[in-house]
């Protein structure tokens, strides 16, 4: 992975995130030199979903109220079915995501997390992938869906599932190193 020392990354999640889709990007981006914060709606811990049952708790570094998009260079949205479904009804979470897009910063979303991109209004006319069960949702929202392990469109990095995490993390680091994507239309 590319060196992204000095970069700051927020991972926005709540209970029910897919365990590996939060922990692997968090750990790999930290190993690449980034300062990574797990951001959630409430302080304390959030509990993951690990394949077919509840997983391990993960400490929350900051609450959504304690952070501003301008504090970060990139945003990562882990999937799982429960996590993005809970977050996509949270107005402040959607505004947080939308701010990263408007500010032309890198956003990574994996598995079911493109639901959040749909609700935040950033998926239209973008090349993306997702977990196969939400393909129709993505297409109906105007996304250009592809069945690839990682798809990148002007700083928007998406992947299908935990099997794509190496490609997802590698592309995230590359995009974070490149910085803002000025040609992107908000």
From TrEMBL:
Q: Does the keyword Protease apply?
A: yes
Hydrolase keyword on record: yes
The organism of origin for this protein: Chelatococcus daeguensis
Recorded protein name is Protease
Give the molecular function GO annotations.
peptidase activity
Superkingdom of the source?
Answer: Bacteria
Task: Tell me which Pfam families the record gives.
Answer: DJ-1_PfpI
Locate the DJ-1/PfpI domain: which residues? 7-174
| Protein family per UniProt | Belongs to the peptidase C56 family.
Keyword list (alphabetical) reads: Hydrolase, Protease
What does the entry give for GO biological process? Answer: proteolysis
Query: Gene3D superfamilies recorded for this chain?
Result: 3.40.50.880
